[in-house]
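haha ok so turns out i had the wrong file open the whole time. this is the CORRECT one, sorry everyone. sequence first:
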Amino acid sequence: MNVAGRSRLNYKQALAWLYGLQRFGIKLGLENTRRLLDELSRKGDLQIAPGGGKATARWKIIHVAGTNGKGSVCAMIDSMCRAQGHRTGLFISPHLVTFRERIRVNGEMITEEAVADGLAIIRDLIADWEPHPTFFEVTTALALKHFGESKIDIAILETGLGGRLDATNAVQPSVSVITPIGLDHEKWLGHKLVEIAAEKAGIIKPSVPIVSAPQEPQAEEVIRARAIECSSPVRFVNEPHRKSPVGLRGEHQKQNAAVAIAAVQAANIHLGEKAIVRGLAAIEWPGRFEKWDERTIIDGAHNPSAARILAQTWREVFGDQKATLVLAVLSDKDLRGICEALAPISASVLLPKIRSERAAARGELAQILSVIISPLPHSITSTISDALMRARANPNPILITGSLHFVGEVLAHLRGEPAAFEECAQ
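then structure:
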């Protein structure tokens, strides 16, 4: 894919450059992404036809927004479509252990070579752009470029943040999917449910069908209003899928499965009953109530609504048995809301130091745990390894949660693999 005059990068160099773009922060808006897709299309590096500010692919696109459950719904759609024999492209975020998790074709992660070559092309293309594209804008373009080269039939795109101004919203989907909406990312999306719902509903396009999970009344009203404005048919999927087993634990995953099935159907993609059964049974999605061993659960819940669902699932599996909670949360989250949601299922809490600049101070978490309605015994530990050793010394089952970034670091530790932040270390 490299030609004379085009700079070459190896995988670590490419990721080092990409992560360096984080200095540009989060910039919500579609102009840069549309320009990037247009330029890649004109150069023959992308199988998407630019037009009228919306990129039109030669394949079906299922676009998924929401606060919680986006990744699970995307993974279910991908698994069922592959079981039917469709060739899929899956784009999700964030990744847990390796950047390559974000971009998959037919279940296979993008290769290191494809990441390096694709980012080299994009780096040369945008070298003098102002404003400069961000980490997520470039990653979205890389995913779509890889999907085109891989000759997929169906792309499943998960929004990174919000919806209306998210980079993934630069494409024209076959169906718009909205999972449960709650409070999260308030700094960017607003502090009221109606404001956040308006951002999520921004993925709705004129005359494109909408499939939604059950919503709070305020959020449902926003979605219905946007659907009327766009003359788009909308279906709220209120009944969970109970016809066959779902490979992910928790009653909420049956609801996610019903949304996933409805989304594929709304996109006019053939999906037989056998493919639904096989796809839902075979799904694997790390960090979503993942059973690591007989007494250890790992879950990426990182806002109060997700933590409440996690507590409900814990009771479904463990009954009244309480957890030794190993907790790390990012500082921009609702720390008190998360702690209060998890307190009823926790016997004690361990607070390890994690390698993220965005991590909430352990002392702040300790203070919250001391003053919530049901105060919990807690200890600050120096490392994840120390926290796990102390958790295993207790008889209780272990729950590791609070952040997908934390979950990724824990999984890397348990697997004996480099953590995500070490991938681009020189």
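The first helix runs from residue 11 to 20.
again sry for the mixup
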